[in-house]
């Protein structure tokens, strides 16, 4: 058996890994640069900031909900490597449009620029919808059965490390620098995507259903009747509903509760990425390549406990003087900052340990000619859950609930995820 890290030396894995790494980096660099720019330079109200972030999150999810079924059908009936090349070509155009939006807003055309940026987020959602099923579904086609969990872990770890780099850079580079960088990275991703080995159709050719509503319903119906797939998808969906809430509330929370600048916000978000990457590697080591939900319930209970601990820390945090935001150096020397950052890392590590084996379930429960559609069905349900999470933030915000107290809702949702994960463990192990 080739070790998980040994896969990085294999042509059957490395180009895919690099392509998805660059895609995640670029997507996150643009979105984080946009959110931080809007939060710190355009808006000056915590509720408006949360609602803008929720809107951006919701727009990015609409394509997953409408087009995942189509993307799964296309991936299972065509060469997946060919689709990757098409998708990476489209990314260049999307980033060109999004970069134009950043520059327009920076130049003072705020409304027009925000419109372009939000449209680019929607288009990036389409991009991710068609690439998402492939990055997991292609693994059983290129890897041996005992390599799939390791490959899935590397893809997850690489994705979150890419998010880390994109997040950190978004907080440190200028708006102009971000606009240039997203175009450069899109070009490099186009080159690496062309090196992914062919992954032709395995089963019979499908009759494609282009109706987004009926195809989504049929896709979910054809997938969710399998008990352990149903439970795995439900558990993953709850996890991403939790993730959506954290993504939406976190930048305003850093600005208005931790009273820190955008570079601290990018550092804190990056801590999540490092933690999930560590969790992905840890769970692969614990399971020794075996696909199991053994540690999932305990992992997500621990995640909920860490979220609750972060809520306590946020309420007790000693803020900067009125009208002042902590810089990175000032925040890191704050007596409470170390515990805050360690708690954020613990939330992410336990989250990574929870979700990685569940993705491995998706790609190994069904035959290889159904993997893309299975991942696509998961994406449809996940996107719906994330939209609900985003709407929940907007609703709570309208009721006057602050970003800090929303963390309590997240902690409760972790317990529901643990219950679902326990049912999955009993059904499969």
Automatic annotation (TrEMBL):
**What are the record keywords, sorted?**
Cell membrane, Membrane, Transmembrane, Transmembrane helix, Transport
Membrane-spanning intervals of the chain: 21-43, 55-75, 96-126, 160-191, 229-252, 264-283, 295-317, 337-360, 380-400, 406-424
Where found? Cell membrane
GO terms for MF: transmembrane transporter activity
Question: Could you name the domain of life of the organism this protein comes from?
Answer: Bacteria
| UniProt GO cellular component terms | plasma membrane
Q: What's the protein's topology in the membrane? A: Multi-pass membrane protein
From the Swiss-Prot or TrEMBL record, give the protein name.
Putative MFS family arabinose efflux permease
Species of provenance: Stakelama pacifica
Name the lineage: Bacteria, Pseudomonadati, Pseudomonadota, Alphaproteobacteria, Sphingomonadales
